[in-house]
Amino acid sequence: MSTPEPFPAAYCPPVEDIKEESSSDEFPSKVFPPGAFPPENCLPAEREPINSSTECVRNSIQDDGLSWEEFTDSDYQSGIQEIKDQLEDLGQQRLSQTKRLQAIEAKIEDLFTEKEITAQLWNTLREPILHTWSGKRPSSKVDCRLALYTHRGNIRADIRAIDAMRFIDGEVFQDWQDAFEDRYGVPWKECMETNCLRNVSWEGVQVFNMRAYVSHRFQGPRDEIMRICDSWIVRWRLDHKFPVPAVPYARLCRLYYAM
User: Fold this and answer.
1) Dihedral, CA atoms, 61, 64, 65, 69, nearest 10 degrees?
2) Alpha carbons within 13 A on the beta-carbon side of 118
3) pTM over 0.85
4) Nearest 10 degrees: CA dihedral of 33, 37, 42, 47?
5) Residue 128 class from Cβ within 10 Å (0-12 exposed, 13-18 middle, 19+ buried)?
6) How far apart are the first and last CA of the chain?
7) Is residue 103 within 8 Å of 97, Cβ to Cβ?
8) Cα–Cα distance measured from residue 210 to residue 198, given in angstroms and rounded to the nearest whole number
9) Residues 137-152: pLDDT tens digits?
């Protein structure tokens, strides 16, 4: 067999020219023909062992469309650090907002407590009047002179007093509602649920209070006062922004304070 020509530097022999020789049956090896020395680029490159965690990270990065070089780049790492800093800032903001919400909840709880105390106070002050209007005997020991003064009507106080009675006595609660509508010319439920008296002018509130006072009287210009009050209340119930006309209100005041 003649000696083959040396292979060119960039030439890699085909597979069929490679002979398998083995010094033993257990360890066969692939060798090139004598005199053939394949270039280094034809030999399989040795791979460095990669642990499983690093390989998982690389696979995850490739799934995100990034290369390992981009991931290890210093600019990319600085971006990661910036994101971490932002997350830390968000955590601090959340902690601050949580403390603020706790303070607000505490204030709301204090307001509810104050509201309960105020409701009990108005219930004590207005109970004799509302009981009288509903045909019941007052159970409160309020001074009769105070009761006589408040007998003129106080629609906003009565709204709160009736609301407080809702959780005390259901029967009295219903009786007070009926008396409220009879005296003020408007249902208590309408005033309570819509909060329609919130933006009523001072003159409008006085119209309700005057009507409540004269509704049980039988002398003086009662009918004329009731007519003026009801005329405005009917329009106001259709439009809560309807103002009190100046001329009728002036006449109402003259008639009312002349009683």
Assistant:
1) -20
2) 12
3) no
4) 100
5) buried
6) 146
7) no
8) 19
9) 655 555 555 555 556 7
